[in-house]
Write a structure and sequence with these properties.
The protein folds into two domains: 106 residues, Aspartate Aminotransferase, domain 1 (Alpha-Beta Complex); 237 residues, Type I PLP-dependent aspartate aminotransferase-like (Major domain) (Aspartate Aminotransferase, domain 2), CATH 3.40.640. It has a seven-stranded mixed sheet with strand order 2-10-9-8-5-3-4, sandwiched between helices. A four-stranded antiparallel sheet has the order 11-12-15-14, with helices on one face. The protein has a two-stranded parallel ribbon with strand order 1-13. The protein has 13 helices and 15 strands. By secondary structure, it is an alpha/beta fold. The chain is 42% helix and 17% strand. Strand 14 and strand 15 form a beta hairpin. The chain binds pyridoxal-5'-phosphate (PLP). The site of pyridoxal-5'-phosphate (PLP) has 13 residues, from loops.
Length: 357
């Protein structure tokens, strides 16, 4: 039985989007491909209202490749990494695994790293790159990227700001120029509501200029090569053409819905879920920093999340347990992509019935 996914990715993908992937194959070095791919990146630029100094791209990878791209192609000597959950920690670890130095500012899970704490560290002049996760899917905390970006651009203009927007891009408001982010990336299985296997990124000229100065950028992780090929509307290596077809169709739908409406729909879903959560439980993230794409809820009633999911499965629904050590202590409801307020309401009603709330 099909279980509709209310987990923080992968999320639901409608049949018509899935079917886009059955279009006939074309060669990725053909004129047809370049025309198609150039059109797709133009749609990305249109939807995200990108000014000319920002360039969109896609990689045939999950989002994590971009941790490596930042580690290999952006960090010169030392990065400052904001760590407030599983994914921001992985970002920091991968920067180190790429052979670059990285210091962490670590806060308790559920909290966010604030601009003052970052400024204090950047003031030392030791760091050339700052990393942050916009939407920590493990804790449902939404970091103050816009405030941080404003401070970094104003006070530390040589620092490149790289942000994981994996579970927020195309749901939350994530315009890189508005947030003063130099490298922003996401995976397609989250708010883009596509199958996994592609990443979407937006990179500005400052970041690309930095990359040109970095030796040993690797192969798949070479940002300069990625954008050399973008000039020809191609990718350096064979892309997942089928998924690009699906992304192209998704972008048509997103552009038709418009960015403000997509954002509003996600805010409305989050508001409904948070209201429900506060009525029965408590929100896990620090007040004022709740994600609008995934709600992480403290299981204050000590209910069995595992049992709930078994019963939800009978109704064709699936939510997410807490991440790692937070399992059963928290549970997560993903409200992203194709989901609507009406669908979320039905799911919350189902939980009410099962748990007798
Ligand atoms: C915030 C965040 N960052 C990174 C990742 C890793 O993305 P991927 O699995 O597409 O590599 C995830 C996956 O859930 C995520 O939620």
């Amino acid at each position: 039985m099909h279980r509709k996914l209310l987990i923080p990715g992968p999320t639901e993908v409608s049949q018509d989007i899935l079917l886009e992937q059955t279009r006939p194959m074309i060669g990725h070095r053909s004129k047809d491909f370049s025309e198609f791919y150039g059109g797709l990146t133009a749609k990305l630029a249109k939807f995200f209202e990108l000014p000319s100094e920002y360039m969109p791209t896609t990689t045939t990878s999950s989002g994590t490749l971009w941790f490596d791209i930042v580690g290999r192609s952006i960090v010169q000597k030392k990065a400052l990494c904001c760590v407030n959950g599983a994914f921001s920690k992985r970002f920091a670890e991968i920067v180190r695994a790429c052979g670059k130095a990285a210091d962490w500012i670590e806060v308790e899970w559920g909290k966010v790293v604030k601009p003052d704490a970052i400024a204090e560290k950047l003031e030392t002049g030791e760091y050339d790159t700052l990393t942050m996760c916009h939407n920590e899917s493990s804790t449902g905390a939404r970091s103050p990227v816009t405030e941080v970006g404003k401070m970094v651009r104003r006070d530390y203009p040589d620092v490149i700001f790289a942000v994981d927007s994996v579970s927020s891009m195309a749901g939350d408001r994530t315009l890189p120029h508005e947030m003063n982010v130099d490298v922003l990336f996401a995976s397609t299985q989250k708010c883009f509501a596509l199958p996994p296997g592609l990443a979407v990124a937006m990179v500005n000229e400052r970041a690309l200029e930095r990359a040109k100065t970095i030796p040993n950028r690797g192969g798949y992780t070479d940002l300069v090569e990625i954008f050399d090929f973008e000039q020809k509307h191609q990718t350096p290596y064979t892309p997942n053409v089928s998924l690009l077809y699906a992304l192209d169709k998704r972008l048509d739908l997103l552009i038709a819905e418009t960015y403000p409406r997509v954002y509003q729909r996600h805010k409305d879903m989050a508001e409904l879920t948070q209201r429900w959560a506060r009525k029965h439980f408590e929100m896990f993230p620090e007040a004022g920093y709740e994600s609008i794409t995934v709600s992480c809820i403290k299981n204050t009633l000590g209910k069995s999340v595992k049992d709930l999911n078994q019963k939800l499965a009978e109704r064709g629904l699936e939510i997410s347990n807490g991440y790692g050590a937070l399992a059963e202590k928290t549970f997560r409801i993903g409200h992203m992509g194709e989901w609507t307020v009406a669908g979320i309401k039905e799911a919350l009603d189902a939980i009410d019935e099962i748990w007798g709330l």
